[in-house]
Design a protein that fits this description.
The complex is a heterodimer of chains A (214) and B (735). Chain A has 214 residues and is of the alpha+beta class. Chain A is built from eight helices and five strands. By secondary structure, chain B is α+β, with helices and mostly antiparallel strands. Chain B has three domains: 169 residues, Aldehyde oxidase/xanthine dehydrogenase, molybdopterin binding domain (Aldehyde Oxidoreductase, domain 4); 167 residues, Aldehyde Oxidoreductase, domain 3, CATH 3.90.1170; 228 residues, Aldehyde Oxidoreductase, domain 4. Classes of the chains: A alpha+beta (214), B alpha+beta (735). Bound molecules: FE2/S2 (inorganic) cluster (2 copies). Chain B: This is Xanthine dehydrogenase family protein molybdopterin-binding subunit.
Chain lengths: 214, 735
């Protein structure tokens, strides 16, 4: 079914209109599918990966398409790390790999052979919370809680980055060690979206936790 | 228990636990990643398979054919369900479009298939192999060009489309000072951080859904209706919800397709909506076009207020009720409001945080700012002058509480409003043009009936069960505070269980009715439990005092736990309401103050300070309530400065349908925020004497920002969002 005359689609319009390109591409394909019988089902390629999560060694045989995020959530059932977008847009999946924060949805599990991974569960548990987790509770640095593990993992890493002297976009003087200021924290935490809008409290919590650490 | 006369003194007034800024009781779970959200219930049922939803690639038309051969043959695939194989499906009372489309397609990304496979990766890959041929129909996607065909809709959730009082036309025509302007607000996406998600499991003909849903009882009904099964056969479990903002008030495709997929696969199935599907597959806040006319005397008294709003929705949908607050906010003897609804073939419009008031105040509170300027008056003073203590359309009806003027005065004082240069565009701070803006906040209070069950166990612990949900609002904590206060036990002796349809039906989370309504239901159940406990202990229930884990009356004092020595004592009750909400107009009020800086060369806008002053009845937990308000202020800042679902008017869909394209505020966008709650108790709302704050907080924020940008630059933007492209060619010459 070609689009009716009401929808003259030029090449430019086609490129501009995502829907149209999907629709017309879908239109074209069934003929091919009929001509060529379906490909024989093949098992997806798997690979073995060994890594350490929260101090425990794991050895997994994974579909190579599995992200680190899904390896944690679906295979190891460590569901504290959240999936907000699966596209590197929200920060809910932030974990620490060898001490550095990453969006775990943006890397495949098999890239992490030999890595040491820390998730929110590894920072602390009820009754034995990490000072950053404690500070989030005290300052109400969350509401629904869904972005929270990512915020906390990011916050822990941010303080380490500042301590290590890593500058940010808002660091005014590169010859001076960056400080834990609200401005620095807001800049460095901006990869972690909180739609509940707890930002003001999160900054207070991080400042507080930074004091505890010092 | 029926609440039909204003509350007198009751155990809540002790305020030993209620009213305290207690940290959330579920905080350690949420901060350690151990609070389980819907998709994460590996524990709930074994052998879960993965579902992946396919969305329609056209906005309107029909599916001519679907070829599933390749997808079915793909590795790991267990089942595929489409409308052709799903059997007859109904439509939920709260849905406008069907949740499984086909052959007819009602909107872009309407779900048309679910592919179930052993793994997520397999389901996703196979979903990409579903080949669909569509017949596209012409659709109507542009609100602005649809105004002529817009109709007067029927009353929507009790709101009449039109209102009039006095003689608006004559009064406006003869008004010495007039304003007549149009404003637009775009479509908004809830963009809650947790995607809609469900795990479905069938046990014979009984279905359990672990899901993420704000309104358990509504949704049990709509799941049953959609699937054509008795509601007794449906159980919903939703103890943790990663944000909703209205987007999870209703059953969505994840739940229904998980259920269909699970039936077809003969296994439990888990489904989350992929982020890029959410904006078009689920609901959104509809765009509005608004016209506001104000007439005033030269000394600043409003004589006429007219507010019209146009919005669109799918056939069978409703209007965005953007004129509601204008009927109640300011005095004026002559008034009119009207709402018109166009049929659009965009995705389904529906409630988002403060539906109606949020976009309505985005327009009205700019108009008020403009009128104050025309009159040469300070915008705070202008609002104060036009306050009303009665419903302007029914002057015999008083507000139960109305401290709008106090909010404005206290806010102005705290914010340093007095030092403001009344002329716009004159305040500079280096490269920044600096401005301040104010807006009134208004949101009606709603009370909904709500039930709970409360148990006292042998150990003296109190367990509360209700299907109330906590969407980040603090329900767990304020319910625990209520039970602790009523039964005289410390907070840590109370356990709260929420979000399960096996529990008594609550008000649920919506319309900012949750806090007052659900705690009032717990109050009713606790009152009943107090009687049962006193009787068990041989004490006079009318005189029994509950404090410090003891029950005392007539000189006797007995440990509370003793009442449960030979078994749990259980009470269940529901709070229902008489007509106090008709006798009195119950509303919540606030004032927002914002300082914004605009880069004199680039037009970049930065927020510097935000303050909200709120009068919203008793604040049950100032810490959680403050969080609700700062969160709402943040969402309001987003509405002011960046949020806009961009409509592709040719093909009928929201183009920026993920979190990279649909921008919401991030840390760097939000300054430190201040919230002040006025001391207020409202005995007409419930024994809790509380009202809502979660939606009040967003009302007016965007206009305060827009007014601050105007004050900084002298450029009036009436089409949201206020982005730099709307400023840059009109910025004042750089001195
Ligand atoms: S889930 Fe990884 S960034 Fe959103
Ligand atoms: S706490 Fe809900 S998104 Fe941050």
């Amino acid at each position: 079914m070609a689009p009716s005359d009401d929808f003259p689609i030029s090449r430019r319009g086609l490129l501009a209109g995502g829907a149209a390109s999907v629709a017309t591409a879908a239109v074209a394909r069934p003929a091919m599918a009929e001509a060529a019988p379906s490909r024989a089902p093949a098992s997806p390629p798997t690979a073995k990966v060994d890594f350490e999560v929260n101090g425990t060694a794991h050895s997994l045989e994974l579909d190579t398409r599995t992200t680190l995020l899904d390896a944690l959530r679906e295979h190891l059932r460590l569901t504290g790390t959240k999936k907000g977008c699966d596209h590197g847009q929200c920060g809910a999946c932030t974990v620490l790999v060898d001490g550095r924060r990453i969006n775990s949805c943006l890397s495949l599990a098999v890239q992490h052979d030999g890595d040491r991974i820390t998730t929110i569960e590894g920072l602390g548990q009820p009754g034995n919370l990490h000072p950053m987790q404690e500070a989030f509770v005290v300052h109400d640095g969350y509401q629904c809680g869904y972005c929270t593990p990512g915020q906390i993992c990011s916050a822990v890493a941010v303080l380490d980055e500042i301590k290590a002297g890593i500058p940010s976009h808002v660091t005014a003087d590169l010859s001076v060690a960056p400080a834990v200021t609200p401005r620095e924290l807001r800049e460095r935490m901006s990869g972690n979206i909180c739609r509940c809008g707890a930002y003001s409290n999160i900054v207070d919590a991080i400042v507080d936790a930074a004091g505890v650490k010092a | 228990m029926k609440f039909d006369t204003p509350a007198t003194e009751n155990p809540i007034d002790q305020l030993k636990v209620v009213g305290k800024p207690t940290s959330r009781i579920e905080g350690p779970l949420k901060t350690s990643g151990t609070a389980p959200y819907a998709y994460e219930r590996h524990d709930a049922v074994p052998n879960q398979a993965y579902g992946f939803i396919v969305g329609s690639a056209i906005a309107k038309g029909r599916i001519a054919s679907i070829d599933l051969a390749e997808a079915k043959a793909a590795p790991g695939v267990l089942a595929i369900v489409t409308a052709a194989s799903a059997g007859t499906l109904g439509k939920g009372d709260f849905n406008t479009a069907r949740l499984l489309g086909g052959p007819e397609i009602q909107h872009y990304h309407q779900a048309i298939a679910i592919v179930v496979a052993e793994s997520f990766e397999q389901a996703r890959a196979a979903a990409g192999l579903v080949r669909v041929r569509y017949t596209r129909d012409k659709g109507n996607f542009d609100l602005a060009s649809s105004l002529d065909g817009a109709i007067k809709p029927p009353a929507f959730f009790g709101t009449e489309p039109d209102s009039s009082f006095g003689d608006f036309d004559a009064a406006f025509a003869s008004a010495p000072v007039k304003l007549d302007e149009h404003y637009t607000t775009p479509d908004h996406s809830h963009a809650m951080m947790e995607p809609h998600a469900s795990i479905a499991s069938w046990d014979g003909d009984k279905l359990t859904l672990w899901t993420s849903n704000q309104m358990i009882a509504w949704s049990v009904g709509d799941v049953a209706k959609t699937l054509g099964i008795p509601r007794e056969n449906v159980r919903l479990v939703s103890p943790y919800i990663g944000g909703g903002f209205g987007g999870k008030l209703f059953v969505r495709a994840d739940a229904i397709l998980a259920a269909l997929g699970a039936k077809a696969a003969g296994r439990p199935v888990k489904v989350a909506l992929p982020r890029p599907l959410i904006a078009n597959n689920t609901t959104h806040r509809p765009a509005t076009i608004q016209r506001i006319r104000l007439g005033a005397t030269p000394d600043g008294k409003l004589t006429s207020i007219g507010h019209e709003s146009w919005s669109g929705d799918l056939k069978g949908g409703g209007p965005e009720t953007a004129v509601g607050q204008t009927r109640l906010l300011y005095a004026a003897p002559h008034r009119m409001t009207a709402m018109r609804l166009a049929v659009l073939d965009l995705p389904e419009g529906n409630a988002m945080r403060a539906p109606g008031e949020a976009p309505g105040l985005m327009a009205l509170e700019i108009a008020i700012d403009e009128m104050a300027e025309k009159l040469g008056m300070d915008p705070v003073a202008f609002r104060i002058l036009n306050d009303t203590q009665v419903d302007p359309e029914k002057p015999e009806r008083k507000f139960s509480q109305r401290q709008l003027n106090e909010c404005l005065r206290i806010g102005a004082d705290k914010f340093g409003w007095a030092s403001r240069n009344p002329k716009p565009g004159l305040t500079r701070d280096g490269r920044w043009l600096v401005g301040t803006g104010v807006a009134a906040a208004f949101r009606n209070n709603l009370n909904e009936k709500s039930a709970a069950r409360v148990r006292l166990d042998r150990a003296g612990r109190v367990i509360v069960e209700t299907d109330m949900t906590d969407i980040g609002t603090g329900s767990y904590t304020i319910i625990a505070q209520t039970a602790a206060e009523m039964l005289g036990v410390p907070l840590d002796r109370v356990e709260v269980r929420l979000g399960d349809s096996l529990f008594p039906v609550s008000a649920g989370s919506g319309g900012q009715w949750g806090a007052n309504s659900s705690t009032a239901g717990v109050y009713a159940a606790c009152a009943k439990l107090r009687t049962a406990i006193a009787q068990k202990l041989g004490l006079d229930p009318a005189k029994a005092a509950f404090a410090n884990g003891k029950v005392s009356a007539g000189g006797k004092s007995i440990a509370l736990a003793r009442a449960a020595a030979d078994g749990e004592v259980v009470a269940e009750d529901m709070m229902e309401y008489g007509d106090l909400a008709q006798t009195f107009q119950q509303s919540t009020f606030g004032a927002h103050f914002v300082e914004a800086a605009v880069d004199a060369a680039t037009g970049e806008i930065r927020l510097r300070r935000m303050l909200a002053v709120c009068a919203a009845g008793r604040i049950l937990n100032p810490k959680a309530a403050r969080s609700q308000v700062i969160g709402a202020m943040t969402m309001g800042a987003g509405a002011a400065l960046m949020e806009e679902l961009a409509v592709d008017k040719r093909f009928g869909f929201f183009v920026n349908h993920d979190l990279a394209g649909y921008e919401v505020p991030v840390h760097a966008d939000i300054p430190s925020q201040d919230v002040i709650f006025l001391d207020e108790v409202d005995p007409t709302t419930s024994p809790m004497k509380a009202k809502g704050v979660g939606e009040l907080g967003i009302c007016g924020v965007a206009a305060a920002v827009a007014n601050a940008v105007y004050h900084a630059t002298g450029i009036r933007v009436r089409n949201y969002p206020v982005t730099l492209d709307k400023l840059i060619d009109r910025l004042p010459a750089i001195a």
